Task: inverse folding
């Protein structure tokens, strides 16, 4: 998502993520630890300072970590844009992680994948997924895991964020 300045690009990137998370955790805090400027090292986005945030009374929680770069754009989309370098999205219950969506190519696993940690046999298997947006994780939590949305317009919010994500992503 573009911006004329690096900080504007970061805010443009963060806005739909904040909106998506607010659909299930309206008081959660996204910390970017000062990551509003291009750097040779990736910037970090961390939900709730690394602690999983409770999703209402569902007994479920969500943890989100991303690394991103701010890059100067050479096309007409904007002067700067943000690109995701890695992510870990984890949905949990009181017994631990239900499912984790990961992309962290620096670890040697160079493809987007999921883990099903509750399965003793398959907990360490990297199930290929393709790229996953946080909007998709939130939608699944609502649709399949019994998490109650915290705003009445959650469907429209998640669709708008996902549409924007798909429009501006530079890798799939």
Result:
């Amino acid at each position: 998502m573009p911006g004329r300045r690096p900080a504007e690009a970061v805010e443009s990137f963060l806005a739909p993520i904040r909106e998506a998370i607010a659909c299930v955790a309206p008081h959660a805090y996204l910390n970017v630890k000062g990551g509003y400027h291009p750097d040779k090292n990736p910037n970090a986005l961390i939900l709730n300072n690394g602690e999983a945030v409770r999703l209402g009374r569902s007994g479920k929680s969500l943890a989100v970590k991303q690394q991103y770069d701010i890059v100067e754009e050479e096309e007409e989309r904007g002067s700067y844009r943000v690109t995701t370098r890695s992510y870990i999205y984890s949905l949990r219950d009181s017994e631990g992680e239900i499912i984790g969506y990961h992309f962290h190519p620096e670890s040697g696993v160079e493809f987007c994948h999921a883990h099903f940690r509750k399965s003793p046999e398959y907990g360490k298997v990297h199930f290929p997924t393709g790229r996953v947006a946080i909007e998709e994780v939130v939608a699944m939590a609502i649709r399949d895991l019994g998490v109650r949305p915290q705003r009445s317009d959650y469907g429209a919010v998640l669709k708008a964020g996902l549409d924007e994500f798909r429009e501006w992503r530079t890798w799939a």
